[in-house]
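Following up on my earlier thread - several people asked me to post the actual chain instead of describing it. Fair enough. Here it is, all 206 residues.
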Amino acid sequence: MDPSTTDPGTTGPGTVVPGITAAGAVDPAGIKEALARYCTGVAVVTALDPADGRPVGMAVQSFSSVSLDPPLVCFCPAHTSTTWPRIRAAGAFAVNVLAADQEELCRRFAVTGGDKFAGTAWRPGADGAPLIEGALATVECALTDVLDGGDHAITLGRVTALTAHRPETGPLLYFRRGYGRVRPPRRRSSSSMSASMASARSRSEA
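Reply from S.P.:
Thanks for posting it. Predicted structure:
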């Protein structure tokens, strides 16, 4: 058996996902292809450029909650990004979680150059970072740390303010280099939510 096509890439009988071979060789294209199977939401990270006071922003998939105490979130911009240095210089940023009907806006913020904010309705947050109208949620942050992440930076932000919007609207999703949508779940009554929370707490304490 050819060791270059065996585990750890095997996911089932006769199925091999390229990426990292048993010999340890790395195939970036294979890694991208495998990880494209992981569906994510999409957000736009925004800030005000301190050099000229203009709004800047970039679309990201790599947004995640990190900690509740203290409240921390992260995103991972590429070192090649021309927008990231301007966000870093601002020292504060906002994460705008995009709704299912904001695909066109996402595509605009995903490219380099041009006026990404042309036609985009927004208002300044407490630290000036643009809060995009129509987003599902806006999370305002103070930049706290930037860690090395290979060809990306791991950016940590402390949450200073956040707001949830549009409970009737689903999120914009990204999967296998394309966009998708999902209906939001039905909103449960407060009594059923309380019962579910009590049940979950009981299980976690067992």
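Residues 1-14 have pLDDT under 50 and may be disordered. That should answer part of your original question.
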